Fold these 2 entries.
Entry 1:
Amino acid sequence: MIPRHLEIGMGVLLVAVLMMAFYVHRMKGRAAETGVRVADTRPVAPPVAGPTEQVILYVAYDDAGLLRAQSARVPLPAGRQQRAQELLRALLGIYLDKNSPHPFPTGAEVRDVYIVDPGLAVIDTNSVLADNHRSGILVEELTIASLVRTLAANIPGINRVKILVEGKERDTLAGHADLSDFYDTLAISKASDQWAAAGQ
């Protein structure tokens, strides 16, 4: 015969094991819910109000190592700053597509574009774009040239562009292309035209 105090001890242990199993099961469920919530809380840009306009996007092509002007219809608001944001979001839409000629990492985005004075635009990207961008001199330079040239072609008066990551300065995009200085739009245009001439 089993002593009474052992029976009570075994009963208490069994109850404790059942309670722990129930607790672990609930915690797994909560962890799964939290994961889904985190994945679904990405900011969603509000739909743009305004007529669509014909714009020129300078799209990077890795295989040829150059930019190509591509016509697109994009809904654009009236303000210069908002127009700049929508232009670059349209450009990123091409790069985030599965058949992109210049793939960007999933989740890459332009957080904001600021027109600081009539001639200076500041592009603020998220860390996903910079941290997960493919490393290499050409692919990084193509990205910068594409952003700068698209802005300059569609927003009159912009002659300098600064690129930030999460609102902060960064030395390079992914180890090569310098982000510490301002980009002169005329110099970028000349350089990308030279790439195109060399590639023909």
Entry 2:
Amino acid sequence: MRWIRLVILGAVQGLTEFIPVSSSGHLVLFQRLLGLEYEGITLEVAVHMGTLVAVLAVYGRDILKIGGTLLRSSWGILRGKMRFKDAIREPRFYLGASLLVGTAITAAIALPLSDVIQGMFGNLRLVAVAWLVTGGLLYGTRGYKPLGRLPTVGSTILIGIFQALATVPGISRSGATIAAGLYSGLSREEAARYSFLLSVFAIVGASILDLPEALPRVTEIGFLADILVATAAAGISGYFALRFIIQKVMRGEMHRFALYVWSLATVVLVWLNFNL
């Protein structure tokens, strides 16, 4: 039963990390309904690492090329052999720099509010309201015709802000960032790619912050096996969820998930009112 519980937890994280219905919101709901709780920060880091593996499996080649260009060009700038204005004209360097700036904007907004946001995770009513907001963001993409642009300074700022908004449980990170990309004129393909490449920085950054607290439990007898089970479940489900949502974005069908989150929010709010 313990491992079944861990598989469910990992699978929920993997599926809802990329499908725009909010992984954090669903985990709060599962905690309330089934008693499925993160067993400390170590397991939380582990399931997020599983979703990171899923992104690497789909976008690994892009990540290697962007990372290599960033390192090579940055080293050239530091040594005085390349000017920044020349480096920024290179598409991969520009995209990498844009992802870093977007992550910095998210961190600048979210980190000072981390204690407030953490306190929201026990409030299922707030999660339901946030699902309503997520539905609005998703439905706003209905019939939207993107301009086919690449990321600009404006789109980078907007996506970074929307990603910070998604630290509230119930606001979907993928939904918010893809919607922001579409609203700012990115092509469907680029909006999806940018969102999921940005998730690498978000997952790694959050895991690094939690790592000092997470590491001590790794050496406990039996706990490593638990971590591997949950991570594998998150990685496998996340991979298929990522492939699925990319297809939906390309077909312009993001708005279809609005009906799900609106319905779920309504059911939860009614249930809470009858269980006061």
